[in-house]
Amino acid sequence: MFDVVILAGGGKEKELIEYTGLPNKAFIPIHGKPMLAYVLEALKKTGEVGRIVVVGPVNELAPLIECYGILAVPEARNVPENLRNGVAVLQPKAHFLIVAADLPFLKAEAVSSFLEQCKPYELDFYYPIVSKKDNEQRFPGVKRTYVKLREGTFTGGNLFLLNPAGLNNALSRLEQVFSLRKSPIKLAGLLGSKFIFRFIFRMLTLSELEARFSVLFALSGKAVITRFPEIGTDVDKPSDLELAKRELL
Predict the structure, then answer these.
(1) Centroid of chain to Cα 80
(2) Domain at 2-247, CATH class
(3) What tens digit of pLDDT does each residue of 66-87 get?
(4) Cα–Cα distance, 164 to 5 (Å, whole number)
(5) Tens-place pLDDT, residues 30-71
(6) Domain coordinates of the chain in residue numbers?
(7) Distance (Å, rounded) from C-alpha 187 to C-alpha 114?
(8) pLDDT by residue (tens digit) across 126-174?
């Protein structure tokens, strides 16, 4: 059984906030249920999930505690701190899942398939990626951020499998990367000029990406190509929300 940390802190998607009038998209109602509920139901249906901690506004989480058997943890200032606080409550002893709260399309089958692909769980970190072809076939017309590699064009997923043993080192580096996110020059310096060059000219391979990640975060990691675009299709814009309302009827 895998413990889970769900990150449901308030976002900064101004357009979506103005569209819904809600400051936190995890609680946007879709056919009478908050978006977060769809994520919780998908996880529960896998039969492979143990304890679930949700990091977010505790008052809004209160109605979900008994219904879904979750632990609610107050949100902090940013994602790295939220993750640290969630893990502090769980104290996981083995690999655990980190999941975004804005994945209403997520299905139990997608989660189970990803966990199966990660076996035998020998590495520290597993990250799902979806091919552009699969994503556009499942969600035609939906705009996503893609990375072009030698093996193909991919978009990232929004759940991860992590070994808690290397978490402290990883979080320290994550906080550094997070602090540099608005300074492309400093961030590029952290990644290295050779890495940036190969990325720009589409020479980068998956193995090189994994190796750079391992150096950057002091963790062994693997990008897992999944056939389930639902893992990466989140709700960031009003058009994403309207798609969810149509798809989840």
Answers:
(1) 12
(2) alpha beta
(3) 899 999 999 988 888 899 899 9
(4) 12
(5) 999 999 999 999 999 999 999 999 999 999 999 999 899 999
(6) 2-247
(7) 30
(8) 999 999 999 999 999 888 888 888 889 998 899 999 999 878 777 777 7
Q: What Å distances lie between residue 209 and 120, 148, 149, 212, CA to CA?
A: 21, 12, 9, 5
CB 118 within 8 A of CB 126: yes
Q: Which of 54, 129, 68 is nearest to 97 (CA)?
A: 54
**Predicted local confidence at residue 186, as pLDDT:** 62
Name the CA radius of gyration of the chain, rounded.
Answer: 18
3-state secondary structure the chain: CEEEEEECCCCCCHHHHHHHCCCCHHHCEECCEEHHHHHHHHHHHCCCEEEEEEEECHHHHHHHHHHHCCEEEECCCCHHHHHHHHHHHHCCCCCEEEEECCCCCCCHHHHHHHHHHHCCCCCCEEEEEEEHHHHHHHCCCCCCCCEEECCEEEEECCEEEECHHHHHHHHHHHHHHHHCCCCHHHHHHHHCHHHHHHHHCCCCCHHHHHHHHHHHHCCCEEEEECCCHHHCCCCCCHHHHHHHHHHCC
Rounded to whole angstroms, the Cα distance separating 50 from 181 reads 33
Token duo for residue 47: 């039969």
- Residue 218 sits at the vertex; the CA angle it makes with 144 and 182, to the nearest 5 degrees, is 45
Cα separation, 41 vs 43, in Å, equals: 5
